[in-house]
Amino acid sequence: MQSVAGATRAVNSEPQKALVRVESAAEVSWKTLLAEAVRSRAELFELLGLPADRLGGSDAEGGFPLLVPRGFVERMRPGDPQDPLLLQVLPQAAEREEVAGYVADPLAEREQLAAPAVVRKYAGRALLLAVSGCGVNCRYCFRRSFPYDEAGVSRAGLQRGLEAIAADSAINEVILSGGDPLLLDDERLAELLGRLEEIPHLRRLRIHSRMPVVLPERVTERLVRLLAECRLRGVVVIHANHPAELTGGVPAAMRQLAAAGSLLFNQAVLLAGVNDSVEVLVGLSERLLEIGVVPYYLHMLDPVRGAAHFAVDERRARGLQAAVLARLPGYAVPRLVRELPGEPSKTWLAGP
């Protein structure tokens, strides 16, 4: 089960226009926008009016290519090399540095593969890796070096993964992840949801996706209908780190997902230079609430190789969290957490 952008993690990947399977004007729109995403530092700098003499580096530091939709670029501040949205997607030379403790698989997920494309971390839940690509390549991604092929992320692998989930009655919630599961087009997503609905012991469907933020056009009428008609209780967890991300078509996309009956939550990652200030974190929570999304988790950075320059010290993180809690009601404050391999849940460092 391969998305139209399933090859986006390969260096020098090209837009997959020839693979687009036309279903509707809306679907053509988001697929076209994804195919036209920015894939070079030179073009990104030109769009933002940044001087070419600051280019340096490569388009694929650490073998992880630059990929960012143009609509997301339009939310960046022109002429500002420290724009917080730009820093999340711009390959930098710092990614080449070897830092002790920063590894390719920081959450030891390969050890937690219970079946092809299925990761079992917590009781009652199974994480299904639906695709290998994303709609944007975030430089701090903890799966930036994940071996998707070895993990069985393919149409055949998903088949075997679904069979494993069906055979385990202890699982009551499936979490669609990847990559980004909303890279599946509506037809293939409908096929997958139909298979999951047939498993009697499943009660909830959770979708973790950055697509509604970076490419809100992905929230099509058919997608909304699929979620509304699914017998499984729907939960959509988006990923935004800065209030400037939540503009353009994002509020409308959130309204559509809410209209489908989905519970909406946000996970953010605490990133140096991006959102490591009280004002930004407060602004993020306020903006999320304005568009109907509950601030859920604020993650400490997973120590993935190539992302050490984003790290924020835990003591400072706790201080930021305390300051945010002093400014906002408890329901507006995400839990500050760290994920540790082998633990039965996220580790709470602070919360409301």
Total count of domains:
2
- The CATH superfamily of the largest domain turns out to be Aldolase class I
Oligomer: single chain
Mean pLDDT, rounded to whole units?
Answer: 91
Largest sheet: 10 strands, mixed
**Structure classification:** alpha/beta
**In angstroms, what separates the terminal alpha carbons?**
40 Å
Strand content: 5-15%
Number of helices: 11
Rg from Cα: 19 Å
Helix content: 25-40%
Q: How do the strands of the widest beta sheet line up side by side?
A: 1-2-3-4-5-6-7-8-9-10
Main CATH class of the largest domain = Alpha Beta
- What is the CATH T-level topology of the largest domain? TIM Barrel
Order of helices and strands: HHHHEEEHEHEHHEHEHEHEE
Find the count of extended strands (DSSP E, 2+ residues). Answer: 10
**Can you tell me the CATH architecture of the largest domain?**
Alpha-Beta Barrel
Q: Which regions contain 5 or more consecutive residues with pLDDT less than 50?
A: 1-22
Shape call = globular
Describe what you observe in this structure.
The chain folds into 2 domains: about 15-95, no CATH class; about 110-350, Aldolase class I (TIM Barrel), CATH 3.20.20.70. Helices cover about 30% and strands about 15% of the residues. With about 350 residues, it is an alpha/beta fold. The radius of gyration is 19 Å and the shape is globular. The chain has helices spanning about 25-35, 40-50, 70-75, 85-90, 155-165, 185-195, 210-215, 220-230, 250-260, 280-290, 315-325; strands at about 115, 120, 125-130, 175, 205-210, 235-240, 265-270, 295-300, 335-340, 345-350.
